[in-house]
Amino acid sequence: MLRSFSREEIRRIAAILAEAAATEIMPRFRNLAADAVRNKTSALDLVTDADESAERFIGDRLSRIYPNAVMVGEEACSRNPALLNVWIDAELAFLIDPIDGTRNYVAGLPLFGVMVAAVSRGEVMAGIIYDPVCRDAAVALRGEGAWLENEHGAQTPLQVAAPVPAEQMVGLIAAQQLDEPLRAAVNANALGLASSTILNCSAHEYRMLAGGHAHVLLYGRLMPWDHAAGWLLHHEAGGYSAHFDGTPYKPTHRGGGLLYAPDAGSWKAAHRLLMGENSPA
């Protein structure tokens, strides 16, 4: 049986993210010492003291409320990759990305977010993407929709953009995550969209998409904490998504890419435009 969540529970979890942002993330923003930033796998894959302390804060607070839940944090998994598999069959697990957009954070750009997804037996039940700068949360609850909630509790429903022809679509295209020759093809084909950019921050890319400010979003690299919350946000805002071969996404999947669009017809049109002859589908 899947573990469901109430809106009150989600509000309490969002409050934890807000507190983590206020105490661990924002005091260090534009105030990081040189030794507070380190490389993980490369010079483009960074971790800071703020990432690690915020992840500990969130995991500790969630464990107090849900003592039997499995906590899966990005930074903990970076240190111990075996943790990537411990949550798959759990009745309840939380996937935690303490600072999504760490490179932006280190550069002093106010474009980063905190993401948490609640997963039960491999199914995403709830997702929260918190913006520490604007102090609001984009929230999705399985079967109950998606909304933006400000720091005063006011809620605004989220709805994906209306379908348009592919050449009129606004795209968020993370083609750098793809292997060749698909990367070159997607980069070239994306010029056929009305606009194409990337924010280097999945948190804000998902918020932009679910809020109807972009039509298409493409990712090649799939880690559960990067996409589970955003996938549910887009789904509950009325959107359609699938791997490049058309199969449904699950948070346990780490390959196959992801393509998002307003509906199934738009997905097919975007897929044809972006993939061209190099499509693996």
Automatic annotation (TrEMBL):
Matches recorded under Pfam families: Inositol_P
Named cofactor requirement(s): Mg(2+)
Matching InterPro entries: Inositol_monophosphatase-like (IPR000760)
Keyword Magnesium: yes
Binding-site residues, Mg(2+): E74, D97, I99, D100, D226
Molecular function as annotated in GO: inositol monophosphate 1-phosphatase activity; metal ion binding
Record's keyword terms, sorted: Magnesium, Metal-binding
One of the GO BP terms on file: signal transduction
Family according to the record: Belongs to the inositol monophosphatase superfamily.
Stated name of the protein: Inositol monophosphatase
Lineage of producing organism: Bacteria, Pseudomonadati, Pseudomonadota, Betaproteobacteria, Burkholderiales
